[in-house]
Each structure stands twice: as structure tokens, then as C-alpha cells.
Specification:
Blueprint (H helix, E strand, L loop, with lengths): L2 E4 L4 H13 L5 E6 L7 E2 L4 E4 L10 E4 L5 E3 L2 E9 L11 E5 L4 E11 L2 E2 L6 E4 L21 E7 L13 E10 L5
Antiparallel strand pairs: 1-5, 2-3, 2-13, 4-7, 5-6, 7-8, 7-12, 9-10, 9-13, 11-12
Length: about 180
């Protein structure tokens, strides 16, 4: 019997994303997307920021988990928007979130699956852009083509049964996505 579980924002996602951000300096925009009822964390890059639809907060997704730990999800829309950081000193200007950047390159950096507070190492999270139909490869661009788009619509799934943790209680999945754009290329 399948049960529908809303995911909860977890401190682990923030710590994992913080560790991941240091490896990517401040050139790529990154965002952690949480399939639950909380807003994902967004860290702007040097020229991009990842937002939810309409330039707003990143929406939550819903996880549909089976008794064996396999799951599918609802979708979450993301946008890569031009970004000008806040200028400090000399009167400083506020940060500017601009238009959707259609030439942004998207990457799936990492994911974490927690079931009843324990991390599963067996879950094989698949991240798919529903607009292009391309499944992301962890740590890189799309599998058969580079995903360059201003907007993507992500869904996640796992078809591998989970046996390394008990499949009880609440489940949470966090996904770290990155978007980059090289102006003038």
C-alpha cells in the first residue's frame, strides 16, 4: 500500500549544500530543492540566481513512497534568472534579480534520501526535467544533451527497493541543482 508523505526541510540538506557550494566557488548559481512543505535554500551565483516560478520562492514537491522505499514525486519548477549582486561601499545598490536567462546550463549535483531520520545509501535518485524529458546525470549535465534553458520542471524517482533503513515514518529527499551562464559565449 502506498502512502503519501509530505517531505520536511532538514538541516542535513543545508549542511550538504554548504559543503557542495565551496567546491563551486561563486561562479555557478546553486539551489537545494526539497520535496516537502518548506522553501528550498537558494545561494546566488555571480550572475544567476535560481528561483521558483514567476521569480518567487521555490515551491515544495510531494513524494509518493511505496512500502519498499521506491518513490515518485510531483514536479517542482525552477527558473534561472539574471542576477546582479549587492554592491557594497560607495552608496551600494541592492541586489537585482532580473529576467529569465534562456542560456543557463543546469546540473544535478547531489541528492540525499532520508527515511525516518536515517540516510539511505541504496536509493538511486533519478532527477528528470519534464519539459525536455532529459534525465540528469549526477555531477554533470543531461544524459544525451546539455540542458540549456531558462526554466526546468523537475521530478524525482527511485525504482530501487530500500533495505538499508526501515521504510517507516517520514521520508525526505533533497536535491542540489546548479545553474551557470557564461555571458558573451
Amino acid at each position: 500500500m502506498a502512502f503519501k508523505t509530505n517531505l520536511k526541510f532538514i538541516a542535513l540538506a543545508a549542511s550538504i549544500s554548504t559543503l557542495s557550494f565551496t567546491a563551486y566557488a561563486n561562479t555557478d548559481a546553486t539551489a537545494t530543492i526539497i520535496w516537502n512543505g518548506a522553501i528550498g535554500e537558494t545561494v546566488p551565483g555571480s550572475n544567476l540566481i535560481i528561483t521558483g516560478e514567476g521569480g518567487g520562492d521555490i515551491a515544495s514537491g510531494t513524494l509518493y513512497i511505496e512500502d519498499d522505499g521506491t518513490f515518485t514525486s510531483s514536479s517542482v519548477g525552477l527558473q534561472a534568472r539574471d542576477y546582479t549582486p549587492e554592491v557594497e561601499g560607495m552608496g551600494g545598490e541592492d541586489a537585482i534579480v532580473g529576467d529569465i536567462q534562456p542560456d543557463a546550463s543546469w546540473s544535478y549535483m547531489s541528492s540525499t534520501v532520508m527515511i525516518d531520520g536515517q540516510v539511505s545509501q541504496e536509493a538511486a535518485v533519478k532527477v528528470t526535467d519534464l519539459q525536455s524529458g532529459v534525465e540528469f546525470i549526477k555531477g554533470g549535465q543531461g544524459s544525451s544533451e546539455e540542458i540549456k534553458a531558462g526554466m526546468i520542471e523537475l521530478s524525482i524517482s527511485n525504482s530501487t527497493p530500500v533495505t538499508d533503513v526501515d521504510v517507516t515514518g517520514d521520508a525526505q529527499v533533497s536535491v542540489l541543482m546548479a545553474a551557470s551562464y557564461e555571458a558573451g559565449l
